Amino acid sequence: MKLKNYKELFEKYESYDDEDDFDDEDDLDDEDDDYYGRPSYSTKDESDDVISSDMEHLLYLLRTFFKNSGVEVQMQNKGLDISIVSVLNKKEKISGVIKVFDVIKKLKRDILPQYDSEFEMWETKDGRPLLTFNFYYGEGLEDDEEAF
């Protein structure tokens, strides 16, 4: 039923675009040019937008990776650093815990090799185990020198 509503909305949007009387090529107020055709210079740093959109895309891919593996996680980022939290059941089989660590190991090895990582184990207020995995980009844990 939701797909039908989306399809109807999409068809209405297409018909609206076809009937519009404006010629998009002749608009004077282009984003990159001012009224006289001179390029406008914005003070906003566009590289920050690119980094944030790339990070959002990376987080989306990581969520998909975990979802396909059958592990429920919550993610957040601060700059280029990523934090992944997984809350397990009160009584979890050892295979479930190992599965979480296997997925994290694949993630670290295949997707985020340039990140330093660490994990912490906590307990929620209701007694459920909580695993926190932190991935630090750049200086991070500063253990790069030990690896060489």
Low-pLDDT residue intervals, each spanning 5 or more residues? 16-20, 25-30
Helix content: 40-55%
Mean pLDDT across every amino acid position? 76
Number of helical elements: 4
Q: Calculate Rg over CA atoms.
A: 23 Å
Task: Give the structural class.
Answer: alpha+beta
Distance between the termini: 58 Å
Strand order of the largest sheet: 1-2-4-3
Can you describe what's shown?
The protein has 148 residues and is α+β, with helices and mostly antiparallel strands. It has a domain at 46-147. Helix content is 43%, strand content 19%. It has four helices and four strands. The protein has helices spanning 2-19, 46-69, 94-111, 144-147; strands at 74-78, 81-87, 116-123, 129-136. It has a four-stranded antiparallel beta sheet with strand order 1-2-4-3, with helices on one face. β3 and β4 form a beta hairpin. The longest helix is centred in the middle third of the chain and has 24 residues, at 46-69. The N and C termini lie far apart (58 Å). 7% of the residues are buried. Mean pLDDT is 76; it is low at 16-20 and 25-30.
